[in-house]
Amino acid sequence: MNDKQKEALVILQEECAEVIQVASKIFRFGLDECWPEKTPTNREKLEIELGDLIAMIKILEEQGIISGQKLIDAHERKIEKLTRAEMENAVNKSIIQ
Hints:
- There is one protein chain.
- The protein is an all-alpha fold.
- Helices cover 79% and strands 0% of the residues.
- It is built from three helices and no strands.
- The chain has helices at residues 3-29, 42-62, 68-96.
- Helix 1 runs antiparallel to helix 2 (42-62).
- It is flat, with a radius of gyration of 18 Å.
C-alpha cells in the first residue's frame, strides 16, 4: 500500500466517524434540529457527511483499493437481506396479533 492509499483510508476513517457523530446527534436531538441557530439541520449535516463518505468510496475505487462491482454486489445483498427481514417481521407481527 502506498502513501496515497494510506491517506485515503485515514480520511475514510474520519468520514465514517463524522457520520457516526451526526447519527448520534439525530438520536439525541432530532433530525430537523440545528445548533447553533442558522446552521444546517442534523438531517442536512447527515446528507453532507454521507456525501463525503460516498466521495471517499469513489476515491478508494479509483485507487484500486476496492472493486466497484463487489461494492455493488454487497449493496444488493444488503438491500435484499433487509427487505427479507422486514417482510419476516411484518409476518411475525401479524401472527402475534
